[in-house]
Amino acid sequence: MTEIDAKIDALVPAWLNLPEIAERFGIEVTRVRQLVKEGQLIAVRRGENRALHVPAAFIDEDKIVKGLTGTLTLLRDDGYNDEEMLEWLFTPDPSLPGTPAQALSENRGTEVKRRAQALAV
């Protein structure tokens, strides 16, 4: 869990705090914290109260967007930190088209994972 910098904050169009995610998932906030700790979600501190927030694009109604967790694992294995992963996920990629985060939400996770794997080469 990292502090957010202005560049990343500008790239990510919308954020959810942990209680909002817990409500959508129908679980306790402590379980959402566990998902972050396990690396299934990325949370950063932002706003005046420095509360933890997750990009809204990572949440599909009442679950984590399909393919996100695997993509985060690939990026971590490539040596990316949380901020670098957010930058990569929310930077437009003309070959997708759109951002990797958009592609994941549109169920195009295979394409995203292929690009994430190519980063390691």
What order do the helices and strands come in, and which of them pair?
Elements lengths: L1 E2 L2 H6 L3 E3 H8 L3 H9 L6 E3 L4 E5 L3 E2 L2 E2 L3 H10 L4 H8 L10 H6 L3 H11 L2
Helix pairs in contact: 2-3, 4-7
Can you walk through the features of this model?
The structure is a single chain. Strands 1-3-4-2 form a four-stranded mixed β-sheet. The protein has a two-stranded antiparallel ribbon with strand order 5-6. Helix 2 (18-25) packs across helix 3 (29-37) and helix 4 (68-77) packs parallel to helix 7 (109-119). Helix content is 48%, strand content 14%. The protein has one domain (2-119). It contains seven helices and six strands, in the order E-H-E-H-H-E-E-E-E-H-H-H-H. The radius of gyration is 14 Å and the shape is globular. It has helices at 6-11, 18-25, 29-37, 68-77, 82-89, 100-105, 109-119, and strands at residues 2-3, 15-17, 44-46, 51-55, 59-60, 63-64. It has 121 residues and is an alpha+beta fold. Strand 3 (44-46) and strand 4 (51-55) form a beta hairpin.
Write a compact overview of the structure shown:
The chain is an alpha+beta fold and 121 residues long. The protein has one domain (2-119).
What is the end-to-end distance?
Answer: 27 Å
Quickly count the helices.
7
Elements, N to C (H/E): EHEHHEEEEHHHH
Q: Whole-number radius of gyration? A: 14 Å
Indicate the percent of residues in helices.
Answer: 40-55%
Beta-strand content estimate: 5-15%
Low-confidence stretches: none
Global outline: globular
State the strand order across the main sheet.
Answer: 1-3-4-2
Q: Tally the structural domains.
A: 1
Largest sheet geometry: 4 strands, mixed
Number of strand segments: 6
Structural class: alpha+beta
